[in-house]
């Protein structure tokens, strides 16, 4: 066999692999959407789940997922910003920076069950928060922080150094330069990363099973008092999210229409994540164009 | 001393802004370091309790094949052998990595060597979407498509290592692919030009020059894939069958470290031996992720251009 | 390259009032030394040019003058401004930079509107009144000869301006702070000839109110606009004299070779 022939065979194999992977994604998305979307109805989205009979919906789970997402971002974004700013703007090449980077790496490589168990041990048991949205949000923060930190660091790092010098040369403090000049310029990248990580949080279940819990108590959506036990905003109540619901229905539940619920919920989950993905691209691009004044 | 001279020599608002900003950053950094230390400490102390408090022999724990933490064996010792879970975890992980690697590298070669723009434009979102699909959805597909499929072809229940492997394969494929693309793209262009100028075909260039040069990066990519597979819990738990038995073949129900943890931690009482034994499994997971981390660092140090 | 004795130098005595002076300034990047023993006096309300081949250390030296090298290099020696050694660690660098502004080689406007580019630092420094800010905006844009071109587009993004306009905006941004001294690091090197001549004209006008120190690799530019010129070579100040003397009657062989183009 000559080299040319091998070249052609190799190309053929690579094209086949690429086609296979694309088909795989189409099959997965197709399976979820074709099976799930017909079962998504207004009733499904707006009624509460049933444990023993068919016809339950996912209203509470959907709300819990969103609420948990918002809380997680509120907790993790400031910490991620602080750490990202430190790494990009202040950190010098020394053992301390090495320690930080190693910590972030270790945190990002921890399996989410381990993170979940730690959250369970510390927050649910030791600090007696119980299975609660708050415990869940903190566990998700652990899971989200390394990604967020790295994304923010990278986005800040990509802002040209000339911008820092411009701020400095006007007598601005490093902090003002960073927060008022560098941060706004890095916003498109940070926002894109934030939305993508929101998608991950939305679909995460393992970190929540033993922190936010596996039950969705009935809540009152008209009670805005966050300290009231039946308020939908109460962060101390247990909250099963959509992703956890899918897992639960498939493994432990006795609901007769488990398959329908899972496929419809999976479809909802995928659609939301697709929206996050598209939204991240769209917003990131738009903001980038606005900031750089290109049309 | 005039006003300006004085201003030049005293601290101003800007100085305090900087103190403030640095303070905030240190606080955040401190929080992260504290958090990691806490995780390591808590998991380690809990996981070691099985051996220190309950006097289980470490060697027995790692090599015995019976997992029955509630009971004692015929010599009156706790019956805790984690080997089935360890073997299963390693089997699904390595098999998944073995299948995923050629696919991932194939796609990566396509994206970095074949088509500079259009190919990446289509494949980049494909990879990102595959990463974005939540693990419960993968688990659900595994449960409703792969498990019945295997049941029909090979018989049995369909649950087991084979199903777990297939699910994990899809899950780690995008991880390995995107990191491989990065490592192939970081091979300097002149390597390729030099090789092509010597009359090598495109494939010869890719195989003999680009892939060789990218080996450290590709290894790192595979290890990240392995780390993800090893730590994945729910998707595997949904298709593996969750029987703490030594796997006899690829289609008998088994249990990985992660699946055992997710299934049982809620059913045991904190502080008891069955519970501590589960924390020891978590400790193995933790150690494994630290070891993989170290390997990545080691490769990173040795394999720079 | 010809070998010159780097330890010989000719430094003229400046009889005028001084804006800034340096004593025994040494700069190190790690272990390698970039500036050796620079002793220069910069006169007030004059334009002083720093010339020299690339690698001569002229930009490095300039950046020391308002402490822009703080995180990058180690700077020893004394830099006196109004009788204060601004190179001392206890000096408030933010105040230093308010009095000694800087314009860089490549235009670096903020990704904000034209007016915000000017007013941002002013607001930060405590100027609150809208009227004052608008006044300062107009005055500084006029000073940088940009007002007529942008007065109707003040809310547009500064990044939509041409390179030459951006650079003049950066000059306007600096002078809006009403500094004493303006440092310019090859401000026209990335610009076309028309923009360059506009910038030169602007600088000429500004030298009535500001002491200007400019780094340039363009000898014609130095001779056109500056009153004094310092020639640096491999980190040493070789000659410092009035611009006329540097170009017509250089005292050192190296200077003569450099200004006559027989260098290197």
List the helices and strands and how they pair.
The complex is a heterotrimer of chains A (295), B (305) and C (264).
Chain A: H1 3-36, H2 42-46, H3 59-90, H4 95-109, H5 112-126, H6 133-157, H7 161-169, H8 174-203, H9 242-251, H10 258-292
Chain B: H1 3-9, H2 13-52, H3 58-63, E1 67-72, E2 78-80, H4 83-114, H5 118-132, H6 135-154, H7 161-185, H8 189-197, H9 202-213, H10 215-231, H11 234-240, H12 257-264, H13 273-302
Antiparallel strand pairs in B: 1-2
Helix pairs in contact in B: 2-13, 4-7, 4-10, 5-7, 6-7, 6-11, 7-10, 7-11, 8-9, 10-13, 11-12, 12-13
Chain C: E1 10-11, E2 18-29, E3 32-43, E4 47-51, H1 58-64, E5 74-81, E6 84-85, H2 93-99, E7 100-103, H3 114-124, H4 130-143, H5 147-150, H6 163-176, E8 181-185, H7 193-206, E9 211-215, H8 219-225, E10 228-233, E11 236-242, H9 243-248, H10 253-259
Parallel strand pairs in C: 1-11, 4-9, 4-10, 7-8, 8-9
Antiparallel strand pairs in C: 2-3, 2-5, 5-6, 10-11
Helix pairs in contact in C: 3-4, 3-6, 4-6, 6-7
Task: Give a brief description.
The complex is a heterotrimer of chains A (295), B (305) and C (264). Chain B has 305 residues and is an all-alpha fold.
Number of H/I helices of chain C: 10
Any idea how many domains of chain A? 2
Q: Output the strand order for the largest sheet of chain C.
A: 1-11-10-4-9-8-7
Mean pLDDT of chain A: 87
Give a quick account of the main beta sheet of chain C: strands, pairing sense, barrel closure: 7 strands, mixed
Q: What is the annotated CATH architecture of chain C?
A: 3-Layer(aba) Sandwich
- Oligomerization: heterotrimer
Q: Number of DSSP strands of chain A? A: 0
Computed Rg of chain C: 19 Å
Per DSSP, what share of the residues of chain A sits in E-state strands of 2 or more residues?
A: under 5%
CATH H-level superfamily title of chain C:
P-loop containing nucleotide triphosphate hydrolases
**CATH C-level name of the largest domain in chain A:** Mainly Alpha
How many domains make up the 3D coordinates of chain C? 1
> Given the helix and strand composition of chain C, which structural class is it?
alpha/beta
Q: Segments of chain C where pLDDT lies below 50 for 5+ residues? A: none
Q: What's the CATH H-level homologous superfamily of the largest domain in chain A?
A: MetI-like
Mean pLDDT of chain C: 90
Number of helices of chain A: 10
The portion of residues forming beta strands of chain C comes to 25-35%
Radius of gyration of chain A: 23 Å
CATH third-level topology of the largest domain in chain A:
MetI-like fold
Protein name (chain C): Phosphate ABC transporter ATPase
Pfam families (chain C): ABC_tran
GO molecular function, one term (chain C): ATP hydrolysis activity
Keywords (chain C): ATP-binding, Cell membrane, Membrane, Nucleotide-binding, Phosphate transport, Translocase, Transport
